[in-house]
Amino acid sequence: MSTPTLYYWDIRGLGQHIRLLLEYTGTEFQDTHPKNWSGDKFKLGLDFPNLPYYVDGDVKLTQSNAIMRHIARKHNMCGKTDKERDQCDMVEGFAMDMRMDWGFMCYVNHMKDNYDLDKEKSQYLKDKLPVKLKQLSEFLGEREWFIGESVTYVDPIIYELLSINLVLSNTCLKDFKNLQNFHDRFEALEPIKGYMASDRYKKRSINSPVAAMLGKIREL
C-alpha cells in the first residue's frame, strides 16, 4: 500500500491544518513541496489542479477542505449524528470566512495603490477579528471541542486559525478564555504534542513570500 502524500508549498498556509489532522490520526504520510508546479499541474491527473493536493492510493484530491473531509471520514471525525455533521459543515464554512478576512488583509488589499500595512492590520484586529472570535467563543461555550465530545476535523482548522492570529497579536484571545483554553488543549493532545516536538515539525512562514506580511520566517 502506498504512503499518502500531501503536496504543498513549504509554508503553513492552507496546508498546516491538513498536516495536523494527519498527525492526530497517526497517518504516515509524505510532506512534499512541488518544484515545478506551474509546468506540471495539468499533467498530474487532477480534476481541478491546485495546491494543496493529496494523493492516497487511487484518490487524488485538491481543495483543502475536501482533503480534510476525506481524511476525517476514514477516522469517523465528521460528527456522530446528523446534527453534528451539519455543525461540522457550518463551522468549516465559518472558518473559511475567517480565512478570507486574513487573505484580504495579507494578500489582496496590498495590491491597492494606497495600501497601508499598519492601517490594514489595525482595522483587522479592531473591527474584523474580534467579531469572529466572539461568535466562535459563544458557539464553543464550555465544551472542550467544537463539535460533540471528541475531536472532529474542524478542530485543527480552528486551532490553526487561532494560532496564526496569535502570531499576529499575542493578546487577541485575552477576552476569549475558552478559545485560549481550546488552543492550549489542542496543542496538549499527545499526537500533536509529539508532532510539535519532532523533526517533522518545523518553523514555517505562515503566508507565501508574495504576502504583505508573515511571508518570511524572520517575521515570526
Describe the structure in your own words:
Strand 1 (5-7), helix 1 (16-24) and strand 2 (30-32) form a beta-alpha-beta unit. The chain is an alpha+beta fold. It has helices at 16-24, 37-40, 64-74, 82-108, 117-140, 154-168, 177-188, 190-196; strands at 5-7, 30-32, 53-56, 59-62. It has a 4-stranded mixed beta sheet, covered by helices on one side. Helix 4 (82-108) packs parallel to helix 6 (154-168) and helix 6 crosses helix 7. It folds into 2 domains: 5-74, Glutathione S-transferase Yfyf (Class Pi), Chain A, domain 2; 82-196, Glutathione S-transferase Yfyf (Class Pi), Chain A, domain 2 (Up-down Bundle).
Strand order of the biggest β-sheet: 2-1-3-4
Please state the structural category. Answer: alpha+beta
What is the CATH T-level topology of the largest domain? Glutathione S-transferase Yfyf (Class Pi), Chain A, domain 2
The CATH architecture classification of the largest domain is: Up-down Bundle
Q: Any idea of the CATH class of the largest domain?
A: Mainly Alpha
List SSEs in N-to-C order: EHEHEEHHHHHH
Separate helix tally: 8
Shape: globular
Beta-strand segment tally: 4
Number of domains: 2
Relative strand content: 5-15%
Helix content: 40-55%
Radius of gyration: 17 Å
Enumerate the spans where pLDDT stays under 50 for 5 or more consecutive residues.
Answer: none
Largest sheet properties: 4 strands, mixed
Mean pLDDT: 93
Distance between the termini: 38 Å
GO molecular function, one term: glutathione transferase activity
EC number: 2.5.1.18
Function: Conjugation of reduced glutathione to a wide number of exogenous and endogenous hydrophobic electrophiles.
Catalytic activity: RX + glutathione = an S-substituted glutathione + a halide anion + H(+)
